[in-house]
């Protein structure tokens, strides 16, 4: 069974339940003790008084009634001793009799076929008994109320170190190397052990983050140089008038691949440093300018496959956006559409809240669409040597920028990707 309440509320509930059970046990014990003692003690007294009356020599002695709150009756008696109808036929032993507002303890004995009954007025005793029960009930309610109050107080005291530890762990500065360790702030108890475990885990995370930052910086720095060399070499080769058309097309393809790789390196670098990147130093572009640039970039490769690239502007969302991320998202969606479309067209449409990329390709079944944004997941119609990272990268970029990407079916076939941009996100 999984508890949905908070830890402090569970402590309060447990404390109140324990107190309620203990108080209920005590109240029940008092109630049973009163009844048992009442029957045992009073029945013993009445039994002795009845025996004393039965051992008297004559009825005149019975009339003396040594106890003023007692009444004596027997079957066959007359006058004051005549047995009332409501007392006839009772079993021998102790009984409680209630007549209107009056109540009696009765003890019955049968001797030689005759029924003898001794009554004792217990109205005063019943009043005291009701007072006792009322006191026990009030005490029970007060115990439960006190348990709620003390439970909340104790829960706050018990949970306070855990709450403080959770706040420290959630604080982003705790991941920084300069943050002090957590364990010295706590006693050597379970919370202190938990803090020490967090210190160990945070140490491993800091080490991993340091290695990631160094790796990101090294990759970004080391890959830029060979990419610049390749780009420069391609430019020089394209200036050579002796290149035939086939060789020129290959050089242009290499140049585009270098540019794509440079954009990918920059995208991964910015994603890895997203929390530490100053947005004011990130180059921004408008949606329309990014769309024009990518349409020109992808028109050739798409048309060379025998497809049409349609560009529509229904509305243009104002504002400027992170240029690297916007180019990467739109470019990956166009590349994905070109990759999985054999005939028909690919459409890039600008709308009021973002843009859409539609194709007439093979499409994706509805039960597989959500998984397509996971890393290393590819559709059933796998083609080429891709690793299935394009849509995952799109999802990561959109999540980091507060954008939304969705996948639906296009008519009559194919996929429709829609990206809703968050205005003002850079």
From TrEMBL:
Swiss-Prot/TrEMBL keywords: Kinase, Membrane, Phosphoprotein, Transferase, Transmembrane, Transmembrane helix, Two-component regulatory system
Transmembrane segments: 12-34, 136-155
Organism: Pseudomonas turukhanskensis
InterPro entries on file: HAMP_dom, HATPase_C_sf, HATPase_dom, His_kinase_dom, HisK_dim/P_dom, HisK_dim/P_sf, Sig_transdc_His_kin-like_C, TCS_sensor_his_kinase
Pfam families: HATPase_c, HisKA
Cellular component terms per the entry's GO annotation: plasma membrane
UniProt-annotated location(s): Membrane
Cited PROSITE patterns: HAMP, HIS_KIN
HAMP domain residues: 156-210
Catalysed reactions, semicolon-separated: ATP + protein L-histidine = ADP + protein N-phospho-L-histidine
This enzyme's EC code(s): 2.7.13.3
Histidine kinase domain residues: 218-425
GO function term, MF aspect, one: phosphorelay sensor kinase activity
Protein name: histidine kinase
